[in-house]
Amino acid sequence: MTRAAVLLNVFLVACAGADSPPPDSLDPAGGDSVQDSVPDDSLSDTAPDSAPPCEAGLTASIDGVSVAALSFGEAPARGDALTLSLTLHNGCDERLRLLGHPDEWVSGAGFSLESLPPVLLEAQASTAVTLRFEPGVEGLAEGGFTLPFDHPGSPLTLPLSATVGGPLSLVIVGDGRHVFTTHDYGQTVAFDGYETLTAHGDSLQRGVCAGDGRFVAVGGNTDRRWWSSEDGVSWVASSAAGSPIGACAFGDGLFVGFDGLPLRSTDGLSWSGGGYSPGEHLRAMTYGGGAFVAVGDAGRVVVTTDGISWSIDQQICDEDLGVVAYGDGVLIVAGSAGRIGRSDDGGLTWALDTVGDGGNTWRGLVYGDGAFVLGDGAELYRSEDGERWEYVNAVDATPIAALGGLLFGMSGQTLAVSEDGGFTWSPTITSAGGLGLSRAALGARL
Questions:
Q1: How far apart are the first and last CA of the chain?
Q2: Is 3-13+56-165 a CATH 1.10.357.10 domain?
Q3: Containing H/E element for 70?
Q4: Could you state, in order of their start, the residue ranges of all structural domains in the chain?
Q5: Helix (H) or strand (E) holding 302
Q6: What pLDDT tens digit does each residue of the chain (446 aa) get?
């Protein structure tokens, strides 16, 4: 059942049970016009005057500030959904009833209700309603929220708007400084190039991240290497003595990587910190919940909040871990023998599980559209909470990135896209050559 159908069922059930008059007393138009049961001549001139109708009606606010219009801000085309929580207040000293059909309250492409208010709002009471916007094509999106009620001043009317920017760029990297970039979610190739056909040379790119309008790829083999770009097409290469940079992530205005110990950069162009750290080899990193989390061989998990030192360094299992993702307050790590770990306290404690038959080596893990997607190039699993995993399908695309309702995966040298949670995939563009592609980042161009 869709979210809209669930919300509508809840609203209709509430309507049916909220002080409803008998069915034969309802006005055909849906109002509450209960038929008179007292003869006209029983009314006398001595009856008290009825109270004047309340004109305060229904008002709307966000964080205590009254609003006359709602702007969702800006999002990239096909990007993650935006939400606004609106407070509705009944300013009358009597109960207020919402009218009409919920499907008619919101208009405009991409706009919808994520949660419904109660049918009845008590005197001087407030309630919350959440509106949702799913970005589509580039441009200005406009709509309206019209909420009728049974008091003077009805309906409450609020214009809705959102600005949809251009698509994000997807940059995929791998051995031989193989870079594959698309600016339109896989419809066309913006850049496809590589330096060598030598695996694990100093052109090896071990990770890529994006932030502040910049893409940064990191790697190396005998020394420290990194590459930066503002569009995923033109790159500036840099190097320094030291160990290779294993991976990177962006968050809270910082690029953070590691070469054993954390490395940090405020611009992606110069790095500080790092150095040898005893422990198992680290392979992947993500950012979420105010922390950078990296995983590696023999179940090693490390955490830093500042890019200067590890605040947590522990072994959570015996299996090698190669991928990590964060979403909705939850960290998921995964690796060989089907092993996964789940943490909801920033990596301090972990619950371990096995997904699949125990023979999978998980090579792709992403979070998008409210769910984690896990793959090994043969099978795909999905979970909304990281605890209960459901088999999706047998697919040869390994998930590498997610945005809104789009999943991106690599099948060999071909980029594939899924719009149904990973059940089916559509091949889009194929790299012309070079070595393998394994790490990806989505980001906006300057």
A1: 41
A2: no
A3: strand 70-76
A4: 3-13+56-165, 169-443
A5: strand 300-304
A6: 444 444 444 344 344 444 444 333 333 333 333 333 333 433 334 434 555 678 888 999 999 999 999 999 999 999 999 999 999 999 999 999 999 999 999 999 999 999 999 999 999 999 999 999 999 999 999 999 999 999 999 999 999 999 999 999 999 999 999 999 999 999 999 999 999 999 889 999 999 999 999 999 999 999 999 999 999 999 999 999 999 999 999 999 999 999 999 999 999 999 999 988 778 899 999 999 999 999 999 999 999 999 999 999 999 999 999 999 999 999 999 999 999 999 999 999 999 999 999 999 999 999 999 999 999 999 999 999 999 999 999 999 999 999 999 999 999 999 999 999 999 999 999 999 889 999 999 999 87
Beta-strand pair 178-182/126-133: unpaired
User: Number of C-alpha atoms within 13 angstroms, CB side, residue 202?
Assistant: 11
Decide: 340 and 332 in contact? Cβ < 8 Å.
yes
**Contact present, 376 and 363 (Cβ < 8 Å):** yes
Q: Closest Cα partner for 272 from 293, 285, 258, 252?
A: 258
Identify residue 140 by its one-letter amino acid code: L
- pTM to 2 decimal places: 0.85
Whether domain 169-443 has CATH 2.130.10.10: the reply is yes
| Tokens standing for residue 358 | 């125990």
Q: Which residue has 């066309």 as its token pair?
A: 188
DSSP assignments along 195-220, one per residue: S-S-TTSTT-EEEEEEETTEEEEEE-
Tokens representing 179? 């870079």
Q: How far is CA 338 from each of CA 113, 213, 301, 352, 393, rounded to the nearest angstrom?
A: 38, 36, 17, 11, 16
| Amino acid present at 176 | G
Beta bridge partners of 406: 403
